[in-house]
């Protein structure tokens, strides 16, 4: 598992109406490789509102249709539920993800 990997998670939460949802792993690599049992993930939705906290993704990343990563809705997921690999983000998409995360958390990039 690496930062930028996409995984489909069955029944991600009680408030999510979908049976499954794809999530992008956004934790830093050192945490992913640690013994810590969870990682931070951003959900992927088919909706896109043009916000700076969203990253467009689609077929190139292994999805069935155009979608977007929503960095305003970060969640902590157990690593053990991240087993249904969908795809991974390109270097360009990882850079866009970093910018979207910085916007979502109001972090000044250096």
UniProtKB/TrEMBL annotation:
One Pfam family from the record: PemK_toxin
InterPro entries membership: PemK-like, Plasmid_toxin/cell-grow_inhib
Transmembrane segments: none
GO molecular function: DNA binding
Xref: Gene3D superfamilies: 2.30.30.110
Domain of life: Bacteria
Designated name of the protein: MazF family transcriptional regulator
Organism: Candidatus Thiodictyon syntrophicum
């Amino acid at each position: 598992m690496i930062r930028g990997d996409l995984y489909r998670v069955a029944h991600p939460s009680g408030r999510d109406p979908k049976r499954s949802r794809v999530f992008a792993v956004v934790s830093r690599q050192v945490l992913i490789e640690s013994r810590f049992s969870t990682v931070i993930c951003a959900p992927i939705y088919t909706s896109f509102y043009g916000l700076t906290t969203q990253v467009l993704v689609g077929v190139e990343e292994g999805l069935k249709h155009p979608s977007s990563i929503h960095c305003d809705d970060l969640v902590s997921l157990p690593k053990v539920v991240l087993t249904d690999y969908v795809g991974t983000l390109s270097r360009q998409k990882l850079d866009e993800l970093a910018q979207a995360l910085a916007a979502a958390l109001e972090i000044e990039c250096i």
